[in-house]
């Protein structure tokens, strides 16, 4: 019998969820990853794994009872902006309905602590200043809207049912665990940094810069990049406050510094010694020009200060992960560190 407090981590086999499971173990908790493995990887899981969907009320009830869950970290969601514009039903069904199912299971189990994976996309078309939490939320794509709806639901649950909940608004999660054991691994990669690295490796032949006519210094979109290990640390800080009776709230998780697409590509070239091959395409629907966090509130309330989120560390850890995790394109001459390890091969098949 594990005597550590059990934390349910929905989406615990995914990119951010798996990093949080590792942080929970280091902090003295027992993570129970709950994941349908539609995009997650069994090999990423540390702690216990329950294969299930958050919309499966019976499976959730059994999991809460079996593991004596004391709090939940909720990452399970669809999270691609472009896809959300093309298929909004998927996003409202997976994200909003899935969260309502989870909340129902929590109430029935008497579990009243939740750390929720939200997003800076709730702000929509922001101006060129770093955004505080008081900035008006006006999402411009269904992904951001689904997260904003959930934030409003959680605010109502906080008042009506005494649910303690932190809504952590991520900006651009990036980088990989320093061990090289886990990182970003998706069948259909759309995020800038991993996709650029896959282009360098020969796995992506159509890497594009979407939009060079934004009202930014170099014409490309600007984002705030935060290392995934720092995100994990912030979740543990939020959990500890909930365990101490804090009621929660909404907080940005970012650095307060933005980098353009061109600056990211330059940093990748500096780390790898190779220019990223790319074409220029029109802007994508739903992409704002500028999205940078004001991290003041998280620093003051959560006592959160990123320690891995300088751009050099983000790019270095991401590149180390990609050289281990992705097999080389057929016919490409391998370098000493780029072969697929047996563990990574197993992950890629899940």
TrEMBL record:
The reaction(s) this protein catalyses: UDP-alpha-D-glucose = UDP-alpha-D-galactose
Family matches, as SUPFAM superfamilies: NAD(P)-binding Rossmann-fold domains (SSF51735)
Pfam families named in the record: Epimerase (PF01370)
Entry-linked InterPro entries: Epimerase_deHydtase, NAD(P)-bd_dom_sf, UDP_G4E
CC cofactor: NAD(+)
An annotated GO BP: galactose catabolic process via UDP-galactose, Leloir pathway
Record's keyword terms, sorted: Carbohydrate metabolism, Isomerase, NAD
Pathway participation: Carbohydrate metabolism; galactose metabolism
Domain of life: Bacteria
GO molecular function: UDP-glucose 4-epimerase activity
Keyword Hydrolase: no
Top-level class of the enzyme under EC nomenclature: isomerase
Domain NAD-dependent epimerase/dehydratase: 7-254
Subunit structure: Homodimer.
Similarity annotation: Belongs to the NAD(P)-dependent epimerase/dehydratase family.
PANTHER family listed in its UniProt record: UDP-ARABINOSE 4-EPIMERASE 1 (PTHR43725:SF53), UDP-GLUCOSE 4-EPIMERASE (PTHR43725)
Entry protein name: UDP-glucose 4-epimerase
Organism: Bradyrhizobium erythrophlei
């Amino acid at each position: 019998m594990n005597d550590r407090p059990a934390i349910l981590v929905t989406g615990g086999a995914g990119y951010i969820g798996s990093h949080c499971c590792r942080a929970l173990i280091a902090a003295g908790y027992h993570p129970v990853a709950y994941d349908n493995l539609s995009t997650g990887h069994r090999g990423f899981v540390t702690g216990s794994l329950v294969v299930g969907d958050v919309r499966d009320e019976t499976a959730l009830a059994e999991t809460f009872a079996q593991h004596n869950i004391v709090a939940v970290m909720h990452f399970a969601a669809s999270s691609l902006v472009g896809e959300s514009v093309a298929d909004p039903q998927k996003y409202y069904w997976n994200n909003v309905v899935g969260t309502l199912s989870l909340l129902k299971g929590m109430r029935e189990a008497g579990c009243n602590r939740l750390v929720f994976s939200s997003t800076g996309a709730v702000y929509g078309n922001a101006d060129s200043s770093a955004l505080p939490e008081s900035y008006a939320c006006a999402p411009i794509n269904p992904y951001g809207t689904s997260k904003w709806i959930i934030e409003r639901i959680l605010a109502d649950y906080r008042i009506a049912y005494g649910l303690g909940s932190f809504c952590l608004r991520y900006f651009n999660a990036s980088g990989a665990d320093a061990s090289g054991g886990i990182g970003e691994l998706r069948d259909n990669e759309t995020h800038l940094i991993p996709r650029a690295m896959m282009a360098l490796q020969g796995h992506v032949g159509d890497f594009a810069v979407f939009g060079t006519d934004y009202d930014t210094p170099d014409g490309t979109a600007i984002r705030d990049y935060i290392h995934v290990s720092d995100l994990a640390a912030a979740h543990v800080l939020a959990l500890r406050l909930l365990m101490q009776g804090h009621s929660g709230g909404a907080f940005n998780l970012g650095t307060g510094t933005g980098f353009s697409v061109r600056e990211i590509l330059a940093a990748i070239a500096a780390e790898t010694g190779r220019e990223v091959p790319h074409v220029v395409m029109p802007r994508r629907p739903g992409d704002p020009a500028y999205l940078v966090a004001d991290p003041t509130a998280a620093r003051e309330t959560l006592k959160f200060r990123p320690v891995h989120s300088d751009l050099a560390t983000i790019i270095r850890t991401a590149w180390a992960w990609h050289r281990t995790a992705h097999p080389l394109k057929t016919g490409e001459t391998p370098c000493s560190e780029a072969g697929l390890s047996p563990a990574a091969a197993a992950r890629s098949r899940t």
